[in-house]
């Protein structure tokens, strides 16, 4: 019988790949597709970009104690994404600070809104970090 596979390295690798894809996707939208990011987009980037670095370093060092930091960034970033998505779906519902040249209600991809993409990435990372916390505490 094979020994049980430790999930911690897989969870950390998954979270890092999600953060890396989200970061590169964000850069693709702004630098290649030339979508101008609104103010809420910048806040989401503030919570996502560092994760591509810190999760990558944690994976390299096998440092599973990274989970509280990544979880906090993901929950905060996911909250901004949810607010941004609400602003796109219901423009004018919240009086946000977003203003021209790019208001937060602009939808570049109506079929799969960018804030929804970010929210999914933040939730995937948060879920991975919650599972990693259980692994790190020995309850996996």
Automatic annotation (TrEMBL):
<dbReference type="Pfam" id="PF02600">
    <property type="entry name" value="DsbB"/>
</dbReference>
<keyword id="KW-0472">Membrane</keyword>
<keyword id="KW-0249">Electron transport</keyword>
<keyword id="KW-1015">Disulfide bond</keyword>
<feature type="transmembrane region" description="Helical">
    <location>
        <begin position="114"/>
        <end position="132"/>
    </location>
</feature>
<dbReference type="GO" id="GO:0015035">
    <property type="term" value="F:protein-disulfide reductase activity"/>
</dbReference>
<keyword id="KW-0676">Redox-active center</keyword>
<keyword id="KW-1133">Transmembrane helix</keyword>
<keyword id="KW-0813">Transport</keyword>
<dbReference type="InterPro" id="IPR003752">
    <property type="entry name" value="DiS_bond_form_DsbB/BdbC"/>
</dbReference>
<dbReference type="InterPro" id="IPR012187">
    <property type="entry name" value="Disulphide_bond_form_BdbC"/>
</dbReference>
<dbReference type="GO" id="GO:0016020">
    <property type="term" value="C:membrane"/>
</dbReference>
<feature type="transmembrane region" description="Helical">
    <location>
        <begin position="67"/>
        <end position="86"/>
    </location>
</feature>
<comment type="similarity">
    <text>Belongs to the DsbB family. BdbC subfamily.</text>
</comment>
<keyword id="KW-0143">Chaperone</keyword>
<dbReference type="InterPro" id="IPR023380">
    <property type="entry name" value="DsbB-like_sf"/>
</dbReference>
<dbReference type="GO" id="GO:0006457">
    <property type="term" value="P:protein folding"/>
</dbReference>
<protein>
    <submittedName>
        <fullName>Disulfide bond formation protein DsbB</fullName>
    </submittedName>
</protein>
<keyword id="KW-0812">Transmembrane</keyword>
<keyword id="KW-0560">Oxidoreductase</keyword>
């Amino acid at each position: 019988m094979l020994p049980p596979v430790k999930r911690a390295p897989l969870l950390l690798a998954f979270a890092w790949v999600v953060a890396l894809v989200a970061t590169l996707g964000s850069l693709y939208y702004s630098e290649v597709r030339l979508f101008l990011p609104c103010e809420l987009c910048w806040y989401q980037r503030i919570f996502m970009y560092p994760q591509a670095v810190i999760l990558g370093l944690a994976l390299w060092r096998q440092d599973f104690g990274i989970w509280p930091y990544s979880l906090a960034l993901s929950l905060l970033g996911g909250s901004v994404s949810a607010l941004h998505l609400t602003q796109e779906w219901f423009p004018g519902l919240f009086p946000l600070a977003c203003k021209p040249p790019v208001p937060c209600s602009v939808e570049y991809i109506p079929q799969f809104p960018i804030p929804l993409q970010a929210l999914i990435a933040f939730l995937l990372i948060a879920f991975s970090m919650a599972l990693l916390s259980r692994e790190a505490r020995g309850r996996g």
